[in-house]
Each structure stands twice: as C-alpha cells, then as structure tokens.
Design brief:
188 residues
C-alpha cells in the first residue's frame, strides 16, 4: 500500500482514521520511506561517487527520472548508494554519467534477494566504523538491507544489526567498499 492509497483510504474519514491506518501499516512492518522489495526480488547495490552535484539533488534526480526507491548516502564519501534490480541500478549510474557528475561507481557485492525470511536463522554482527556518521550507517542497514534490529553504540562508534547472514555479509562488503569499516564482531 502506498502513501497515496493510505491518503485515499482516509479521504472522507477523519484524520484520526488515517493515523490509525498508518500506524497499523507501520506496525505490520510496512516502511513509510522505502517500499519493501517484491517477494524474491534480486537487487544489487551500486555505489555512485558524485563530483559536481550534491547528494540531495542526485537523489531527487534518480527518484524523479528512474523511480529509484531504495537509496542512502554517505556524505563524507560523497557517495549515493542505490539498491535496485540490476537494470535500474545500471540506468542510475548511466544517468549520472550522462550528466557529467559521476566520479566513479562500484558494486560491492553481487545480487541478493530482499524478502521476508520468517523462519530463517539470524545472526547479530557489530560493525565498528570510522569516517561515517552512525545515523548514516543505521540508515544504510535499515533502508538498503531491511535490517529490522539495529542498535547504535556511541562509545565505540559501532552499529549492531541482526539479520540473516547473507544480508550481514553484504552490508559488511558495502562498509568495506566505502572505506568506513574498522572491524566487525559476530554476536551469536
């Protein structure tokens, strides 16, 4: 269900009914900022290093022109990370290249499926980071990889995430590509 569907469902009703509906959707795991991946959808991360365009403008361009849904940024690296099906990720890179604002691009790991894994075994991993804000790291884990459990440790500049091992390995590869990973520790 999209924001427009939520709004239309609430039309004719009170704003309280819209809030109740929205709260129920969010409580059921629906993401307000980033639509969930389709069941079994294979996606790839594309790290797009910008030069000559600010991150918010590049993000707006990709959302408007290509309807990119899952993206996050690491300001210190002037990087925009797109997590989409391979063809759309490639088009995002090509669009920024055409505009002359792409310094470089990489794909830190192969495709993964972002789908609910209800009975899959999970693990916890702590990522010790440097050169990135913990808020950005938390956003990467939640927005791009769908990690439901994420905790921030301010004293050791770390982020702990719980997910299936495949997702944790992929997130580690992304942090490594961005040059912000100082170390890891498995918790389970």
């Amino acid at each position: 269900m999209s924001w427009m569907q939520v709004r239309r469902s609430a039309e004719g009703g009170s704003s309280l009914s819209a809030l109740v509906l929205l709260a129920a959707l969010l409580g059921a795991g629906w993401s307000a900022g980033t639509p969930a991946a389709a069941e079994g959808e294979a996606v790839v991360p594309r790290v797009l290093y910008l030069d000559g365009m600010e991150i918010p403008q590049a993000a707006a361009l990709l959302r408007a022109e290509l309807q990119v849904r899952r993206l996050a940024a690491v300001a210190a690296r002037q990087a925009l990370i797109v997590m989409e099906e391979p063809a759309r990720a490639q088009r995002a890179e090509a669009l920024l290249q055409e505009r002359g604002v792409l310094r470089g691009a990489s794909e830190p790991h192969g495709s993964i499926e972002l789908r609910p894994r209800i009975l899959a075994p999970t693990a916890a991993r702590t990522f010790y980071l440097e050169g990135v804000s913990l808020t950005e790291a938390e956003t990467l884990l939640r927005t791009l990889y769908g990690a439901a459990e994420v905790a921030v440790g301010l004293e050791d500049h770390a982020v702990m995430a719980r997910s299936v091992p495949e997702i944790l390995d992929a997130a580690e590869a992304l942090f490594r590509e961005l040059g912000v990973l100082a170390g890891t520790a498995d918790r389970d």
